[in-house]
Amino acid sequence: MRPIRVLVAKPGLDGHDRGAKIIARALRDAGMEVIYTGLRQTPEQIVRAAVDEDVDVVAMSILSGAHNHLLPQVAKGMKAEGIEDVLIVGGGVIPDMDIPNLKIQGIEAVFTPGTTTETVVSYIRMNLKRDLAE
Amino acid sequence: MENWKKHLQVEREHWEQTTVKKVTDRFPERKETFLTGSREPVERLYTPAEGDDHYLEEIGFPGQYPFTRGVQPTMYRGRLWTMRMYAGFATAEESNARYKYLVSQGSSGLSVAFDLPTQIGYDSDHALAAGEVGKVGVAIDSLADMERLFEGIPLDRVSTSMTINAPAAVLLAMYIAVAEKQGVSADQLRGTIQNDILKEYIARGTYIYPTKPSMRLITDIFAYCSKEVPQWNTISISGYHIREAGSTAAQEVGFTLADGIAYVEAALQAGLDIDEFGPRLSFFFNAHNDLLEEVSKYRAARRMWAKIMKERFGAKNPKSMMMKFHTQTGGSTLTAQQPDNNIVRVTIQTLAAILGGTQSLHTNSRDEALALPTEDSVRIALRTQQIVAHESGVTQTVDPLAGSYYIESKTNQIEEEALALIEKIDELGGAPKAIDIGFIQQAISDSAYAAQKDIESGEQVVVGVNQYQMDEEAPKDLLRVDPVVEKRQVDALHIMKGGRDQAMVEAALAELKIVCQGTENTMPAILKAVYSYATLGEICDVMRDVFGEYEQHVRL
């Protein structure tokens, strides 16, 4: 079985990357292959990187309040590329009341402050859409 | 022993007659006598009861080198710290209303939060601004917005701190222009611009230009302000974001002072005089929950900076050696779980900052792990400072924790650890180099990851998160920035652009470009562009053309 490939991305102008870096390291420690985009990625750049790197998961971290605008655009962009089997998740300072709509828009899980890295690791393992044996 | 006591007595007398008297003649203490809660008198300063050679050299008296015990001899007996609440959201009008509210509630200085497009030099109609306008701060596109932001706030009477870095020169120019329109001259202005690009590369992320032109813009501001805006703090060298990114207390001090050294070296290289720009350098630190470690941290940082300025750079003016600093309570210590508990955390952190001798303080609101704070939450955070100021009694004497075995050992230990980091950075060729090769970022990342592991293993208890959890309802009453704000801001920008003298704008931008390509000070040309109502984005684009853009080195 090959390892899970994850793109950890920072959409928008937000410079808070402590969470993104911690998640990236934790996923790597859990045996996944992690690509981290660095700061200031547009939704188009994130979609491009996800396609080019052929990842199984896109994990976005955002603390600037622009989540309602930026996260759905990534989900839309993936669909426009004809990719439906990549798990898309988000995390950061995201109010509970925004989460149902983000889920409708294709962000399948949203992790808020206080989430452990273990929770994220096991969520990803349990909810992959691709078969790693292929 | 008797001799030592006598010696201390003489030194103390000398301090009272010189350092203290000089200050109290001009600024008497707030009261004739200070009392404990049980109405017992409290002296201005307490000193060792027994012989201690370390004392006079390394600790000394407040207001005197090496300033371990504070930069003023009377500290909060003279004047309380500035209660400065960081605020800004949506448009200039909404933020203006919040500032007026804060002033009416006893806030003693303004602190402006700008939105991310403003901080990165994009106008609100830029493609990358979509979704970000007015979110983490106020959107400022041109002088017109700045005029609305300070409408009805007399700029000769408030001190204003602006959290702005890469485009700091432009926002400072706008502030000077607004003041002039109010009839207030630049030499009356008091305040601070953050203007600390190195920590943007390290930890905060709102950089625009590469290191070299960024350092030039910073030293241009130092030079311009020392002549034209002499009361302005031209930089706030920030450990705050380094700590938020996950550093330890000693790393916060070491990396911040290493940045400070880089700015001093850049200014000296630009031909400036250390005792001219030195007194206008200020610092910005975090306050986390470990009360005694934090108090020690501020004391260590103060002593170290004094030594660096005196011994390393040969400063003569004691004001150049004084580390004045702003403090903000630690955003990353707040929990989304049981958010009212954050009021208690902020109280502990407030005590740390005050017992550590801060000059100004922002207290975070209980709901900031969830959203921008509501007016009610901000009021409680401000009241927290007021209770510590007026009810706790810790302000009655200067540096009350001095002499505690733990505090003094911890102060020494943080100094040693931070000094070792500075030495390592010197070996690497200075802070800009150490940032380029990712040394500083890597060290912070490692500490952040270790801290997270400690929380997940339960080694570090976080109340409400990994212990004492309970079922909670989703919090209500969070502040939300209406998406219509973005459209209003963009519309106003387009109307403003339609009404300005386009030829004047283009001439000012062309002139700015020539100045940027040469070596003369950029501030006058930036001011001229601002007065023409050139937008922030237009001005920053001219500089992007000439200077290029910084490329982040991604490391995990």
What's the CATH class label of the domain at 194-392 and 403-457 in chain B? Alpha Beta
General shape of chain A:
globular
Largest interface: A-B, 36 and 46 residues
| Reported CATH architecture of chain A | 3-Layer(aba) Sandwich
What oligomeric state do these chains adopt?
A: heterodimer
| Helix content, binned percent of chain A | 40-55%
The CATH topology of chain A: Rossmann fold
Roughly what is the average pLDDT of chain A, rounded to an integer? 96
CATH topology tier name of the domain at 194-392 and 403-457 in chain B = TIM Barrel
Number of beta-strand segments of chain B: 11
Please count the helical segments of chain A: 5
Helix and strand content put the structural class of chain A at alpha/beta
Note the total helix count of chain B: 22
Strand content of chain A: 15-25%
Low-pLDDT stretches of chain A are: none
Describe the strand arrangement of the main beta sheet of chain A, using strand numbers: 2-1-3-4-5
CATH top level of chain A is: Alpha Beta
- Rg of chain B, alpha carbons: 23 Å
Tally of structural domains of chain A: 1
What percent strand of chain B?
A: 5-15%
Describe this structure in words.
The complex is a heterodimer of chains A (134) and B (556). Chain A is an alpha/beta fold. The N and C termini of chain A lie close together (8 Å). Chain A has a single domain, classed as Rossmann fold, CATH 3.40.50.280. In chain A, helix 1 (18-29) crosses helix 5 (117-127) and helix 2 crosses helix 3 (67-80). Chain A has a 5-stranded parallel β-sheet, with helices on both faces. Chain A has helices at 18-29, 43-53, 67-80, 99-104, 117-127, and strands spanning 5-9, 33-36, 57-61, 87-91, 109-111. Chain A is built from 5 helices and 5 strands. With 556 residues, chain B is of the alpha/beta class. Among the domains of chain B are: 2-59, no CATH class; 194-392 and 403-457, TIM Barrel. Chain B has helices spanning 2-26, 53-59, 92-104, 116-119, 143-149, 168-181, 197-204, 211-228, 240-244, 249-269, 274-277, 291-312, 318-321, 341-355, 375-390, 405-428, 431-436, 439-457, 484-499, 502-517, 523-531, 536-547, and strands spanning 34-35, 41-42, 82-87, 109-112, 159-162, 190-193, 232-233, 235-238, 281-287, 325-329, 360-362. A 9-stranded parallel β-sheet of chain B has the order 7-6-5-4-3-11-10-9-8. In chain B, helix 14 (341-355) packs across helix 15 and helix 20 (502-517) packs antiparallel against helix 21. The mean pLDDT of chain B is 95. Classes of the chains: A alpha/beta (134), B alpha/beta (556). Chains A and B meet through helix 1 and helix 3 of A and helix 4, helix 7 and helix 18 of B.
